[in-house]
Design brief:
alpha/beta; 14-stranded mixed β-sheet; 7 helices
Length: 337
């Protein structure tokens, strides 16, 4: 390896770390890039998520402008894959979605994507009846979905084919990575101890996966109920958002409440076969941390804290992180001249 070839480590193999690695290979074609993680593919929290492109209105970067740029860049990244023959293998699909509310018109609005997705409009009276009685407000929008059970293996395969390396290892300190010119910290909730970041908390999520190949659109009911189809006919029913909860066990009471709400939203789900129950701990931080830092003598770019919106916003934050990393590398190289 050329001594001027930058040696880069990416910590974390979830959707954020995998996407950072992919973008790094595009931007720094000669770099020696290694993904280091202790969990891969189906063992990551990324595969628990439904993966619909619908950021919550509370999702926030350091400024409103940066937040909007992250979301726009993410949308364009996913659209580029969607336009290729690789889209099915990568787990990408277009998706129509409705969101209904019995309480509040504002619940059906989303200022982060209303001017980005092809269609975002209020529903008419007939559409309010799609999910039964009682719904007073609603919106329809066209979006997309990323199935991480496919995206992660696909992106990992492409990464390796382009010369990337993978090491299965848990990293407890940045000081152990002094051999690398640059480190990207995409450890999600792991950053809480790795960085001693007390602003990072878990938001526990629980979902039910059911077999519903007939379901062709996503449905949301107010804040806490959603039904989202998948590429293999497996729909995701949710959910819960339990702040600062680290319980990874399936709760039967949460499962019963999820099923009751989702069946109230869409009664046909009563006949759907349950495939499995899943629990994931979302790494929540306000704002999401995308910034460079010198940590234990190592040049680090952090990219974590996406909460429940990591799948959809991973590309935008990854692009930002990679650009910051390249600037850090350039300053490092200049310091050696």
């Amino acid at each position: 390896m050329d001594k001027n070839t930058p040696k880069i480590a990416v910590l974390g193999a979830g959707v954020v770390g995998t996407t950072v690695s992919r973008i790094l290979q595009e931007e720094l074609r000669s770099a020696d890039i290694t993904i280091i993680a202790d969990k891969f593919k189906e063992d990551t929290v990324s595969t628990v998520a439904a993966g619909i492109f619908r950021p919550g209105t509370s999702f926030r970067g350091p400024t409103p402008e940066v937040t909007k740029q992250w979301i726009k860049d993410s949308w364009n990244y996913w659209q580029e894959i969607l336009r290729t023959a690789e889209a099915p293998a990568a787990g990408l699909m277009t998706l129509s979605s409705y969101i209904f509310s019995k309480e509040n018109f504002h619940t059906t609005r989303n200022h982060l994507i209303e001017d980005l997705v092809p269609v975002y409009r209020a529903v008419d009276e007939d559409e309010l009846k799609i999910c039964g009685d009682g719904w007073k407000y609603g919106a329809y929008y066209s979006t997309l979905k990323i199935e991480c059970s496919r995206y992660l293996p696909w992106a990992e395969k492409v990464f390796i084919e382009k010369g990337g390396k993978i090491i299965a290892q848990k990293i407890d300190s940045f000081s152990s990575l002094s051999e690398y010119d640059l480190v990207f910290n995409c450890t999600g909730l792991g950053a809480k101890t790795l960085c001693q970041d007390n602003d990072l908390v878990a938001i526990r999520g629980q979902v039910i996966k059911v077999r519903a190949p007939w379901l062709k659109m996503a449905l949301y009911g107010d804040y806490d109920t959603y039904v989202i189809p998948g590429v293999d006919g497996i729909a995701t029913l949710g959910g819960v958002r339990q702040y600062d909860s680290y319980n990874r066990q399936v709760c039967k009471h949460d499962a019963a409440a999820i099923m009751e709400r989702c069946c109230d939203l869409l009664p046909a789900l009563k006949k759907a076969d349950v495939v499995c129950h899943k629990v994931g701990l979302r790494p929540h931080r306000v704002p999401v941390r995308v910034e460079p830092e010198f940590f234990d003598g190592v040049r680090v770019v952090h990219c974590y804290g996406h909460g429940g919106y990591g799948v959809m916003t991973a590309p935008g934050t990854a692009i930002d992180a990679v650009h910051k990393g390249i600037d850090l590398l350039k300053s490092n190289l200049r310091s050696k001249i």
